[in-house]
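Weekly modeling sync, notes
Attendees: S.R. (lead), two postdocs, one rotation student

Agenda item 3: backlog of single-chain predictions. S.R. asked that every request posted to the team notebook include the full sequence so nobody has to chase files. The rotation student volunteered to paste the first one in as an example of the format we agreed on. Action items at the bottom.

Example entry:
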Amino acid sequence: ASRFVNGLLGLLCLAIIAIEHRDQLKRALWQLPALALATFYVVWPRLWLHPIGALAESLHKLSQTHSPEPFLGTVTAHPPHYYFLVYLFATLPIGVLAGVLASPRRTRATLVTALWFVIPLGVAFSPVRQDGVRYVMPSVVALALAGAAGWDRLADLLRFRHAFLAIAGALVVYLGVTLVRIHPYYLDYFAEQVGGTHTVAAHRWFETAWWGEGVDRAVAYVNEHAAPGAKVDRDCILPAHLAWFREDLWTPMVHSPAQATWIVRYGDAPCAIPPDARRVFAVEADGATLAEVWQRPDSR
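Predicted structure, as returned to the notebook:
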């Protein structure tokens, strides 16, 4: 009920029944949607009083695109239908990807997992083909399961007593390293096969710094170091409502970097930094700059 894409998993449930319990399929064709719709209504309070109107309002929001974002070197609000597939590849740790490639073939479990991965990708035909993998999270879980199955298969092939423990331990250490490398900005993780987050940001292949990561630290730096009543420009932060400065900095706030003493820039915001400004603070994730603070000579 929190994501309309989850409705696509109803098709997966029907597919599982068709694969594992074909004799129950006819009954499932009406029971499954009826129970799903009833649950959908019960767990979403917005539907209780005006279900049709609330649902129509949500579907209207679903039809709207988000802000333009970088994708494979261009900036677009309408990425291609293969957008999610490329993103899943770029954000899948290579250790998990290796397990996916080694996962068992020609089993019913493999077929179910493959459908689990593919069916949520149907959202690629909706207008919300943006903002990374958040709309296809079920596919991420399917990849994790396939990766685990693949490494388990490789442990069986090695045929020595502690193969599974050795592989599992190495994988845990590797995944721990990926977490440390990007900590605490996990939304900005990109895997080794695309060169990491710093390479992605340098080539503008994918979106980084899009959910407010690091803005709090940049604003805190200005709040700590700015003189009383200093001129601040926060228009280089998109969206600007993420930045809340000291009370005395709001009244003299300006809307041009050329008039400001302090400039906070976030992500790829199109903002011309004056030549006399110097960067005094930056927030980075795996070598990519998320937020930065620039200071100019006091213009008062």
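Discussion: group reviewed the output briefly. The beta strands are 69-71, 74-76, 232-233, 262-266, 278-285, 288-295.
Action items: rotation student to repeat for the remaining queue; S.R. to check formatting next week.
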